[in-house]
Structure formats: C-alpha cells, structure tokens
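quick one
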Amino acid sequence: MTETILQIDDLKTQFFTEEGVVRAVDGISFDVNEGEIVGLVGESGAGKSVAAQSILRLIDHPGEIVGGEVRFRDDVLFGLEEGPDGDLQPRDEMLSNEDMRRRIRGTEIAIIFQDPMESLNPVFTVGNQLREFIEINRNLSKEEAKEEAIHMLREVGIPEPEARYENYPHQFSGGMRQRVLIAMALACEPSLIIADEPTTALDVTVEGQILSLVDELQDKYDTSFVWVTHDMGVVAELCDRVNVMYLGEIVEQATVDDLFYDTKHPYTEALLNSMPRPDQTVHELEPVKGVMPEAIDPPRGCRFHTRCPDAREACVETHPTCREVSDRDDPETQSHRSACIKHDEFDAGYWFSEPIEVQAKTGISGDLVSDTSKGGD
Ligand SMILES: Nc1ncnc2c1ncn2[C@@H]1O[C@H](COP(=O)(O)OP(=O)(O)OP(=O)(O)O)[C@@H](O)[C@H]1O
Ligand code: NI
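structure w/ nickel (II) ion:
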C-alpha cells in the first residue's frame, strides 16, 4: 500500500468582505499519496489558489479557514474542535505557527508560485539565495551548500550553472527563473511540493520543457505534488489523479485516464471540449459557455446548472456533493467520484424531471440564467 501523505477533509475557506461572504473553498476533500502528482483544475475563480494556500494555512485577513481538516502524515496542519463555550477552536494537536513554518520552509513541504519574481529577492544573486536556503535548511557548511546549489541548478537544466550562480534574478529569463524556483523547492528534498500554476506565464515550449523536467525529477526524488492549473493539457501531461473544481467545490475526482476517457461530470466535459487537441483547428474549440457565477452568491442546487448543457429541473433543487460513481466491487477499480445527479448513485429524480433552458444550450449569453442563479443553498 502506498502511504497517504496529505489528507484534506471538508476544507472550507471564506473571505469576509463588505459585499458579503465569499465561499472560495466550500467543503473540498481529497488526498495525495506518496510519489503522486495530484491536479487541481478549474477556471479562474474556482478556488484553486485559495485551496492550495489553505493547505498551508497561508490565508490572510479577511480570509479565514472556517472548517475541515488537513493532515500531513501524522501532523494536523489544520483542525477545529468545539470548545467549552461551544465555539469552534483550533484542536490541541494542530501545529503551532512556528512548527508550521518549520515544516514549510522547505524540508518537508515546499511551495512554488506562479511569479518567480515574487519569490526571489532582486538584490541578491540567484546563487546566494539558493545557497543560503540550502545552508539553513540542511545544516551544511557554506562551501558544501554552494556546491549543492550549483548541483541543483544543473539538475533543473540551467546551462553553465557555475557562471549563472553569480547572476541576479533579472538576468534570467522567465523560464530560467521558474527553473530556479523548482531547484529551490527540490533542494531540501521535501516530501510534498505545492505548485500554483508555476508554468502558466511561460510560453508553450518552455512550459513543455519545465513539465518534463518536473516529471523527471519527480521520478528521481519521489516527491508528491499538488499541481494547480487551469489547463487540461498540463493535467494530461503531468498528473496521476485530478480534482476538478467549480465554484469552491470539487465536482469530479478521478485518475487522469478515467477523467479523460470516462468523464462523469458535464463541467469536466466542457473543460475538455475547450482544450486544444491535435486533431482540431482553433476554430473548432468550444470555450465553456457563460461565466462562472460569483462565489459570494452561488446558484442553488448544482452550482454548475446555470451553464450546464445537461441541466434539468432537479439540478436546481438538489445540491450534489461528490459520490463514488465507479464500480468499486472490482478491487482493481480506482475511485472515481462525481457530483452530478444524472448518475444513478444519486437517485435525485434527474431522469424524470424536465430539461431547463440554459445559456450553454442556446449559446446566447442572455438573462436566461438569472432566475435560477439567485439565492444560495
Ligand atoms: N483576498 C480575497 N478577498 C476576497 N475574495 C477573495 C480573496 N482571494 C480570493 N478571493 C475569491 O476567492 C475565490 C477563489 O479564488 P482563487 O484565487 O482561489 O481562484 P483560482 O481558482 O485560483 O483562480 P485563478 O485561475 O484565476 O488563479 C474567487 O471568487 C476570488 O474572488
Ligand atoms: Ni489561482
């Protein structure tokens, strides 16, 4: 049995804004096994970044993690319990901020963000930053750390690493800077790396290079990843398992093969149809129709019903959360979960109810959706 190293259970993160409560992450559950790359995919605003940050408790005011549990191996990264006054309070075993920082600083969990310039200090050379990071986290001497830094720069495919060691961040291209961040993330051989769209800003060729690099290094170091992306192409190339997010929820959860070849949720279907394929011209691409509603006032029932080509009246009434939809009597079958009531497992009267008119069917970006999109659930 492979070990589960990250376990997320019913995690909820909200932002308390003047306009109202933004339910950015609204009860997501998934886990990550040792040596596995797990994707979080969805359109802009789905809650992917907030989910990634919540795992590491990196949520600032006016945001707050309001429920759920996050476990990393035997540590409780986040967990609440009812206090003596009936209010929820952090559980005793929850790691202190100091312990949390120590775990995240690179030795156990590392993070890679989209913009390397935010993570690199412009006034120090790349080599010095990498060396110092290694020196602190791995208790090496300055010389040893420098050697290791150069070794890591070479590992991530930076040409002439000895010379590049002396350069400042601005002397690197975007792709090269991203490689530096990957080197930094891997330098302390963490068991888990959380990557939030680290290749999104790069051109396709460079992105491809970086993805294959990650694949290669992942094999070598057996690192687990949570990989945030809005790009199904990246998912196909990199991930073992995927969570599809829509408006703060996970609507489908499967292995990459099952997700692509046995798609169970209309939103996933729509994302896949919007993805460029070699057998299609750009004109044949179908972007997901309509826009994602605000997380402040999500549609009642299924949150995707306002854009779903399969939506029926029952979808407006029932708010489905992910259920197992695969045939799990067969022990070989991997879990495949979907939050769509058209699957028999839900028994929510889908097939007896009338189809509803939505934007996605008519292709009109009209007001058809406004009636049903009011009032949360
Ligand atoms: N500081 C904040 N204050 C208020 N709302 C926020 C804040 N940060 C995020 N949100 C809201 O939380 C929701 C989820 O945002 P998030 O950044 O996680 O989306 P995402 O899936 O990462 O999108 P993208 O692909 O654009 O990065 C959005 O509705 C966003 O507006
Ligand atoms: Ni994001």
